[in-house]
Amino acid sequence: MEEYKRTVLYVEDNQLNMALMHHIFKKNLPSILLLKAETAELGLSIARETLPDLIILDIGLPGLNGYEALDILQQDEATCHIPVLGTSAFAQVSDIEKARNKGFAAYITKPFQVKLLTETVERLLGGGL
């Protein structure tokens, strides 16, 4: 049985992105347990139940979008301390500024640059992986 030092929750509705993230973590961040949710609603439930060290949240989710889910996480005493990394294919300067202004700890555009994603996750987790 593997020993994980940290837990990250990835909320993403696209199965290809989910598979890519799983591969990135397995290869580049093997000491991190990656939990997955396909909807914001499920992600919120898992976040409350497991209190992960970091949440990676797609902004363009069906139902509750990433901004709405972030608002709920920030208003919940149990989850407000968890840093949230926003992800989206929207790469305009205005999109990045909007994400930062909403309170995301960081924002990464898709398609993911593996090195940037890995470094950002490590930074948001405070190192020690």
TrEMBL record:
SUPFAM superfamilies: CheY-like (SSF52172). Residues 7-125 form the Response regulatory domain. PROSITE patterns: RESPONSE_REGULATORY (PS50110). GO terms for biological process: phosphorelay signal transduction system. InterPro entries: Bact_response_regulator, CheY-like_superfamily, Sig_transdc_resp-reg_receiver. Keywords: Phosphoprotein. It holds the Pfam family Response_reg. It comes from Paenibacillus borealis. The keyword Phosphoprotein applies. This is Response regulatory domain-containing protein. The modification 4-aspartylphosphate is found at D58.
